[in-house]
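Methods — Computational structure assignment.
A single polypeptide chain was analysed. Its primary sequence is given first, followed by the predicted tertiary structure written as structure tokens.
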Amino acid sequence: MMHATPTQRRPASLRRSWLFTSGLDEHAQQAALDSCPDVLVADLEEFTAPDDRPAARPRVTELMARCRAQGMVAAVRINRLAGDGMLDLRGVMPGAPDAIFLPYVESSDEIASLAQAIDALEAELGLPAGSTEIVPTIESALGMVRIQSILAASERISACLLAAEDLTADLGAERGPDSLELNHLRSRFLVDCRAAGRVAIDCPFNYRDPQAQATDLVWARRIGLKAKCSVYTAQVAAIHAALTPSAAQRDRALEIVACFEAARRGEALACPTIESPDYHTAKRLLARDIEFRTWSAQALTAMHTEEPS
């Protein structure tokens, strides 16, 4: 059984796109694979009908290997533990998923129960202890106010997802492509995840409007979000473009840093005045760019090392 070790797996901090797909529909799964997200999440909850779950679980185990063969992080969203969650977990763990999503989390006890079940299944199946990550989904006001205890409930938690539709419904808010009803919670969610040392996965943009999506991604990047959930394959490329430093951005950042530091040294250069906030933003972009370049080089080296001679 192939299972990517944590050192081979794309780091959680560099997982830009988290794409949800059906647990059973082969055509949907292939389309998801073809869109090349950083993380592919086979969804046994919302995207798989209850009667289809028994047939979907073995198919998901096969999908996990296909994800890893294409360099993607392989994940599964199971149902709530009080429902079909434990059956889902036992059914998919033979496929060694890299991460398990738990929906509608409102207490640390739910995470503790899931972690205990994963402990037992890793031991039973001979998987590396601690290798399966947990990603809670926050979908209610109660989950939001308890998020710090939830995120502290297990060392397996690598990231956390903020929902859109269920959370909006719980708040009694009105949805719109400008996300005004959720933006205050998206900001708070990022702060909570950063404080807990977990990656904040931004809620999905559930409108098929590329221009509105682009505006939403600019807002998300501006406040510091670096990961985005999606349910549409067509959105993956835009997510990657928005959340990855481009060559032009890198060149501009290098210019800003050079001009600012030259002015600080008292050197007379033909540079516009650079303000301190822009300098620090440029430094952060360059650091992010180095993260991506370093990981890409490591992944390429690992790929060549694993190829048969």
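Note: The radius of gyration is 21 Å.
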